[in-house]
Amino acid sequence: MSRRAVVIGAGLAGMLAAAVLWSAGADEVIVLDRDELPDGPEHRKGLPQGRHAHLLMAGGLDAMEELLPGAGLRERLLAAGAHEIPLSSGVLALTPEGWLRRWRREGPAMVTCSRALVDWVVRTTVREQVPVEVRRAAVVGLTGSAGRVRGVRIAAPGGDTDLEADLVVDASGRGTRVTGWLDGLGLTGVRERAVDSGLVNASRVYRVPDGAERFPLTVVQANPYVSRPARSAMVMPIEGGRWLVSCGGSRGGEPPADPAGFLRYTLELPDPIVGRLISGAEPLSDVHLSRSTSNVRRYLERMPRWPEGFVVLGDALATFNPAYGHGMSVAAFGARVLGRELGRAGGFGAPGLARRVVRGAARAADAAWSMAVSQDVLYPDVRGGTPPGVGDRVMTAYTRRLTRAATGSHAAASVMWDVSSLRTPPTRMFRPSAMLAALAGSPLPPSTEPPLTPGEREVLRGLDRTGV
């Protein structure tokens, strides 16, 4: 008997899930998306954060390559114009505790490019490897019962139609309607939590000036410890000889949409380096704003009953403030959980399979959720946050101490790189070597200026039109 899998959403989580389902023995994989998918790396409506900076961390890329074996995904991204940035030497970062030094030693790297390029490369790679069918369709509900999902209901001009499936995966993203769909099956009481700092993202694309092609990724991080709104900015190299410049501000510190205000915002940060860089660069786009940035967690794994044949992955399960750069990686982790559980079960119909996948995907999202929420709750006027308890304050104090040490200690910086790259869990911060590095602190004095090479300083001076 043929086995059909239906995936809702043709984004990153959905296409990776489609690849997993085919490799696990599905005879037919159908991906449904309400958008008309572009033929190239172009922005689409279904990705509200698509115009803003996205970081593909090493842990996430590792998971994607595991899901697409032999495809050379990293090489494909780089061939399409993406950049590989070593965290140890390729980043200028002003943290709340000071500038991080740069080290000429190996460490994890991240890939930077537009979000549209990541989605396009993954989508084309999956479709080359897997005979997946992608249809434009709007899913309006699930069919079946509280015990088992049998398929999806699709909106159609002449009346809704049903599409049967042995397994349905909701990878429809931040705009999922999973709570309503479950209500329609008689499964109520989904617990949700939203932590909303009111973050507004503003992004603009620039042409990389001649001579600045190798200038490091530059970021001025927000400071959650000063009882003021978050304000940050990043200059990130992307494909096509361009810089993607993204600013982020929480409630009360939102960046403006006009070009003059955008530049002024970057210059008023604790260090004006982002504004100095872009003041001499040619803009290639308008300023694009987005307000869809809250952290949202749907605790589906805690439901007393869960239907067979239905799985939820990616942003449909947990959505993060995009400032932390973990969403794409967590989507890949969830798809990896799906693959592992299907392999253990030996088939789509194994009892309890769907519940195990949802629980595993939730665990895979927990670390990123904790890192994002623990920061966002510290900003003024946050909605949905709870005041930090004693344990939270102890954790914050330790994290600050470790970050302060990382400004001049390679050992401490290595811990931060490992955790932020999502190659190791946050428990890495509490290994004896990490705690010793935090206790010892930085052997070097704090740097009051960005750690630029002489050549980079010359580039910055040549671009600066601000007189700062």
TrEMBL record:
Pfam families: FAD_binding_3. The keyword Zinc does not apply. The keyword Oxidoreductase applies. It comes from the Bacteria. Residues 443-453 have a biased composition (Pro residues). Residues 441-468 are annotated as: Disordered. Residues 5-343 form the FAD-binding domain. SUPFAM superfamilies: FAD/NAD(P)-binding domain (SSF51905). GO terms for molecular function: monooxygenase activity. Keywords: Monooxygenase, Oxidoreductase. InterPro entries: FAD-bd, FAD/NAD-bd_sf. Residues 455-468 have a biased composition (Basic and acidic residues). This is FAD-dependent monooxygenase.
